Each structure stands twice: as C-alpha cells, then as structure tokens.
Amino acid sequence: MRDLFEQEEEGLSIPIVPGAVLLRGFANDIAQQLLGDLERVLASSPWRHMTTPGGFRMSVAMTNCGTLGWVSDRTGYRYDRVDPASGEPWPAMPATFLQLAAQAAAAAGFDRFVPDACLVNRYEAGARLSLHQDRDERDYAQPIVSASLGLPATFLFGGIRRADKSRRLSLAHGDVVVWGGPARLSHHGILPLKEGEHPLTGRCRINLTFRKAG
Ligand code: SIN
Ligand code: FE2
C-alpha cells in the first residue's frame, strides 16, 4: 500500500542525485495495460531464473521483450536477440511499454528515448537484487527507465563507486525511476522483498527496466 507520505508525493518528481529522479505514480494510469501486455510477452517467453556467471540461481525471475534481451548464464552477461529458452527472437516490445519509457525519460529531461530492450523482473517474498551497475549497454548517454508494479520494495541507490554510500528509497506501485547523464553508472539494487498481496500482481513485485542496449 502507498503510505500517506507517498500519496502526498504522487505526481511529483523527486530528485535523487543529479541525473536521477523518482517519478512518483508516473505509471499508475497505464499499469493495468502494461500488465495485460506483459501476459502476451509471457506466453512466448515465460519467467525463468537465470544463472549467474558464478553458478548461482538468481532469486528474481526474469524475461525480456524488445529486439534485445538481457541474459545471464555461466559464460557471463550479454544482450541477445534470441531467447535461449525458445530459440526464437524475444517478443516485440508492446506499444504501451515504449510509450511509458519515452514519456518517463522525457519527464526526467531525456528526450527521444527509444528503448530496444525491456528486462522484466519478478520478485517474490525474499527475492533480491544485489548492488550492481547497468553496464552491458553500448551507449551510456542513454538513460535507464525503471517502472515498479505491484508490491512495494526498498530500492538502494548508491554512487558510481561500489563503496559509495547508498540511499534507500521506498518504491510503490506505479513509481518510475530514471537515471542517466552523470548518474548513468550509479550502483543500485533491491532489498529482499517483504511478503504481501497486491490487487494487480498478487504476491509479487514486477519491474520493467527499459534500456537502449544496442
Ligand atoms: C534492475 O536493476 O535491473 C532492476 C531494479 C528494480 O527491480 O527496481
Ligand atoms: Fe540494474
């Protein structure tokens, strides 16, 4: 549930650091359409738990849509045109996804953002993503747009260096974080998800991360 403080912030752009902004509730109006379109993506490329290069099973379940999909396996991280599970190209990025990504990027000051990759993350209770940088993309001039749906989570947002102090931001359904420019290589992560139930996503949180990868 969005707490009273977050309700008051709805529609606000909250600066995090130069180049990074939290857009409270930015995806609220389109959330149901995004989730409906996600069902069609999942019909071709279902959830899977990828393996890290070190051999660990990721707690977050993932899939992708768009021309390029982010993949992790024993050989490393990469973007691939083909879903390794199906041997087919990833499902096309739905128009609603492209629209949300472009509008959120523009609201954060990044015009004409056209992502070619959307990584979709599903967190169940206990699932987490440790502090990392997004650095598998070709052009760091392009921002990252990250939309939260369903259960709330605590987002860690740190600095360019791994040891830099990180801030904790509480992300609720509909919140969108955009980082680029001087913040493009900021470390970030998600603390273990707390149990809960959300009317649109059930017992999980879904995150859409849009990137121009190629
Ligand atoms: C990511 O860093 O890929 C996802 C972050 C999130 O789930 O909010
Ligand atoms: Fe990331």
Automatic annotation (TrEMBL):
Q: Which PROSITE patterns match?
A: FE2OG_OXY (PS51471)
Q: Which InterPro entries match?
A: Alkb, AlkB-like, AlkB-like_sf, Oxoglu/Fe-dep_dioxygenase_dom
Annotated coiled-coil positions are: none
- For this UniProt record, give its keywords in alphabetical order, as a comma-separated list: Dioxygenase, Iron, Metal-binding, Oxidoreductase
Q: What is its EC number?
A: 1.14.11.33
Start and end residues of each Fe2OG dioxygenase domain: 114-214
Return one GO MF term: broad specificity oxidative DNA demethylase activity
From the UniProt annotation, give the residues forming the signal peptide: none
Q: Which cofactor does it need?
A: Fe(2+)
Keyword Iron (UniProt): yes
Keyword Lyase (UniProt): no
Task: Check the record and name the NCBIfam families matching this protein.
Answer: PRK15401.1
This chain belongs to the protein called DNA oxidative demethylase AlkB
Q: Which organism is it from?
A: Variovorax humicola
> What taxonomic classification does the UniProt entry list for its organism?
Bacteria, Pseudomonadati, Pseudomonadota, Betaproteobacteria, Burkholderiales
